[in-house]
Amino acid sequence: MKHSVRRLAVAACLLAGSQALYADVVVKIGFAGPLTGPIAHVGKDEQFGTQLALDDANARGVTLGGQKVRFELLAEDDQADPRTATTVAQRLADAGVKGVVGHVTSGASIPASRIYEQSGIPAITPSSTSPKLTQQKFKTTYRVIANDLQQGAAMARFATEVLKAKRIAVIDDRTAYGQGLADALVDSLKKLGTPPVGREFTNDKATDFAAILTKLKAAQPDAIFYGGMDAQGAPLLKQMKQLGITARYLGGDGACTAEMIKIAGAAMSSDVYCTQAGIPMDKMPGGKDFNERFKKRFGVPVQLYAPYSYDAATALIEAMKAANSAEPAKYLPQLQKVSFKGVTGNVAFDASGDSREGGVTLYQFANGKWEARP
Questions:
Q1: Ordered alpha helix ranges (H), the chain
Q2: What CA–CA distance (Å, rounded) separates 132 from 175?
Q3: What CDD domains has UniProt attached to this entry (predicted)?
Q4: What would the DSSP string read from start to end of 180-243?
């Protein structure tokens, strides 16, 4: 009897060993963004886009170093807060992630990028547009979207050449994203010979803009630009209307959301415009199919940058496949050579880690939604 038990135990060990031999190797991919708070809808959108990319890769099957791998997402909430972002970045590094999609906001990406550089972990942001992010020249920092310099220049040209605005006021929320975008706009306006008639500041937690708007109203602007997210942009637009300010409302990609329309409500009108890094989903090569699969998988429509987070995750996987390894030190050099047709278009990076083909689209509110202008 003892011998039978021993033989069974040995057989069980051998079986377990053979199963372990053929089990998928788990490769953890990190995601970081605001999953709670006023812009959680943007963070969840990008988290879902990342998850869909990993699901697709797992369904196709990826083999690295002779072993089949299974990608798992480890998501962390940075609350769009710079200090929390560094904590989250260290947590992901300690958890052994092999790459990161994120962060969502520039204010979080910039401090977190130093942690990833020190840990040697590649991080690709789908939506952080501050030029400062890649100007640090970190080898692990990449983005799949146009930067603020391109957005600021596009809005400045549109405001002055198409809208014929001559008195433009500027407000920003003092975040790396909001201020960076506003600075880029101001620089472009000055080059076009139309310096702002006013420049004011708020913060990304504010709800009352009466003092700022009253001050700007006296300058009689024909357009007001806000650099920041929809959580403040929508109330600001409402209060412009309440104060009888008839200036056109201009915003960046933080305002180009369905949530902006929802929060602003009746204050939305045809004199509300925004720029968005990238191209409209219906113009993306894989946009229609992606949108349908996204809604089926998660039960919600795409908010903003989910297609870009999908392409960011795919870029990490493509580099791993090229290196035949998920180890960052081995596949990082391949990120510089990555080139593929993603959902958003051709994905490739320049020497700084910026997108080689980052476009900018101008939107106007019309027919109850954001419509791309030709």
A1: 2-22, 40-60, 82-94, 106-119, 131-135, 148-157, 176-191, 210-217, 230-242, 258-264, 287-298, 306-323, 328-335
A2: 12
A3: PBP1_ABC_LIVBP-like
A4: HHHHHHHHHHHHTT---SEEEE--TT----HHHHHHHHTT--SEEEEES-HHHHHHHHHHHHHT
CATH code for the domain defined by 148-277: 3.40.50.2300
Q: What is the CATH number of domain 9-146+283-358?
A: 3.40.50.2300
What is the per-residue pLDDT across 182-193, written as a single tens digit (0 to 9) for each?
A: 999 999 999 999
> CA nearest 67: which of 263, 252, 327, 270?
327
Does residue 239 or residue 373 have the better pLDDT? 239
Domains 9-146+283-358 and 148-277 share a fold: yes
Crossing angle of helices 306-323 and 40-60, in 10° steps, is 40
Answer positive or negative: Cα dihedral of 60, 64, 68, 74.
negative
pLDDT in tens, 87-115: 999 999 999 999 999 999 999 999 999 99
Cα 255–Cα 155–Cα 350 angle in degrees, nearest 5: 90
